[in-house]
Design goal:
68 residues; alpha+beta; 2 helices; two-stranded antiparallel ribbon
Amino acid sequence: MALGPGKYDEHCTQVRRETQATGVCLMVFDGLKGSGFSVQTENFRLLAMLPQILRDTADQIESSGGTD
């Protein structure tokens, strides 16, 4: 994961502030600036858990057939 702000970091900040969240993971597909991924948190434990959270999410998507 790259350090420093990404192309959608301002949007990630907006969501984090508006939701008063501890952390935000924002994924953008084919947006105005292309596709991108931004993560913000000051909770390093949450950041350390992010890979497992993403794996679990991917497993859930695959087991559901990828659609709602």
